[in-house]
């Protein structure tokens, strides 16, 4: 249990068998309900006690029984959830306390479970049991046999190749630590995002994006179908062709709105390169990224609206560099600022294709798999930020990982407050459009009730968070009274999680899982995270992501044994599908490989995370210090 959980457990000071009706009343439950709840708790404990035939009470099974009976409701005070959770796990010292447990029937319906049931009996023979029992074996198999794993997964995603790859992985060029993935293939990944597909069920009338602007809480959620998205993307692609040369880098510095997503996909579809810049950056930070990427233009907004206030954005872009700006109005049809002579309003930009007979039709620019589509940046806290290029391969990893570990699928509505200037922005786009899920966007601050009401009204099923955001929701009570029961899981990244905050979050939706994710821009994904085939504990990771291998290194660069609890640095195996193989303004080899130890005839890639690595109940739970 994390330190915050240990502190809370000590405050509670009781085991579950010592809890009484008066404790439940003090936690905010009416006396009559407390008496009923006490009886149900006693029955749950008795059932677990009978099943263990007189042995020590298994605290994990007690919690499993409490959540299976749904004795705790989202409407109950958080103090009650705390009382029962920390009392159940009072003095628990057998690894991280588990709060969510996969069911066998549901596991077989997950994306990973389906392919395991279809392929593992042949791959593993009699050793295959079921998706839960055999998950660890399948994860190891995906690391040892990436060609087989990825050949299976690629058939599950609507990736359209103009020319199919010669193979999955070519390791003949020893100068490339990670090998060549999908060599010889030609495609445009944005085309795969906007075209219809029978598998997954992604039709022209499917809802591609839902959104709402801050302040419109009582209005209907806006919807855009896949066909409408495709036509908008193609119109912008035609307008881009009128102004720029193929291969030009074009920046996006604006909130992640539906319009920003359209612009992003259009730049890629038309064979240009997106330059990702966060809308929170000051002019100097914007200037550095425009300079390093050699951007020829930037899409931005006239301002950022938060409640009744407007915060300047276009003026920051003007201060940063003299490059051409195409300015989208934050509100209404017209921009609210005076533009420079070389700049264009969004309306004038779109009007440049009015002369075309079919402005909503466009033939995608197909490129080799290793062509650059997006330039993202590291934080840049110690000098110029590293310019990290994504190719058409990177989005495939985004979509595949969300499909596998987060179980994203057609019918899901996925929302994650983020920005195209950070890696989660592009990941979110590809995670939705390469799985058939609907992308949900809130045009405003995620800190208030308005965002929560959008999550409710949009029917969000997968909600991404950062821990500081959850802490704010919990401390302010701004989400009180909302119905989030359509959410089937949360995902969390960016910071170390707090156990009690995640307890609050999970309790809002009948203890659905909070899937922890840890990765990097260079990887285009997470290398370690939770999943729906293993029990989960708050604030921990349960497995390396699919096809990912790593070791924990001691101070001398030696790997610890897999089953030994340890503190060390993560060394990733280099054959990582989707990882970048270059930097635009730094020596990739020097940054990631030089000085790293060899492991099983391959050099590890450095990952600047210190890890506390522990084994619990045949589960690998890893907590990172940031």
CATH topology of the largest domain: the name is Rossmann fold
How helical, in percent, are the residues? 25-40%
Mean pLDDT: 92
Structural class: alpha/beta
Principal-axis shape: globular
The proportion of residues in beta strands is 15-25%
Low-pLDDT segments: 608-626
CATH architecture of the largest domain: 3-Layer(aba) Sandwich
Can you identify the CATH class of the largest domain?
A: Alpha Beta
Strand order of the largest sheet: 7-6-19-18-20-21-22-23-25
What is the total domain count? 2
Protein name: Acyl-activating enzyme 18, peroxisomal
Organism: Nicotiana attenuata (Coyote tobacco)
Transmembrane segments: 261-282
Pfam family, one: AMP-binding
